[in-house]
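QA checklist item 7 of 12: single-chain prediction sanity check.
[x] sequence parsed
[x] length recorded as 290
[x] structure emitted
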Amino acid sequence: MGLYDRPYYQDEPRSSFSGFVGGRSMIVNIIIVNVALYVLAVFLWPGEEQLYSLLAAKSDTLVRPWMWWQFLTYGFMHSSSNAFHLIFNMLGLFFLGREVELKYGSNAFLKMYLTALVICGVIWSATNLVMEENSSLIGASGAVTTTVILFALNFPHRKILFMMFIPCPAWVLGVMIVVLNLSGQSGAMGGGERVAYDVHLLGAAYAYLYFKTGWDLTTLFMPTQWRGKFKMPSRRPKLKLHDPEDRYDQLDQQADTVLKKLHREGESSLSAKERRILEDYSRRMQQKHR
């Protein structure tokens, strides 16, 4: 990673849409799929209940292995009778998720997002089986809650607009989400039979786990030697370019090590040699970007 690619050494913030598949961020790709399925269900599919029955997670999905794909598809379906179900989820994902994607990378974000859907769906299904309840689950709320809580954990003092007009630090929003869903799950809020408060809380819990460990399903099922190779395909450039600066690889590696130390321990921890490495690297990168 180059000096000017690091978030703590940038003159200007980079666009949330740069460097991703097809010129779009993973957030936008996810939103497109959600909106497309909503339009399909409401306007194009003959008998929308059939589509919901096909894609929603059920209480017994866990004991029907041939239907386990529903633990993913339910998260891309939203209630056709309540457009705000889709709108609020996608707004939260768009405004807060882009920073999370930039921090972790689009591939890691996608794996985290899908893992959140699976975890929330599986535990919800298991709980309903134990309680002998027959119901269905749709909506991205669990994974969106994971994304929003990750934003609050990574940028706790970032000012955001709650309900579009009330400024507050991100950590306050995170606390409010957890408290409100705990109240809803306990029945204190009332009238929440169609709101999956437990799924929201599962999403929040997974956000904390991911923040601390970076764990997703690929670390559970994918062999160690394959994990670094699991990446979304990127658009190849039309021209194949060759880097004439291969001889600077050693300097790049040294600068990367020093930058990590700078980020971790502060400028005062750098030795005179490490400072010279950064100065040399900075001059080279400035010349390269002219």
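[x] summary fact logged: DSSP finds twelve helices and four strands in the chain.
[ ] second reviewer sign-off
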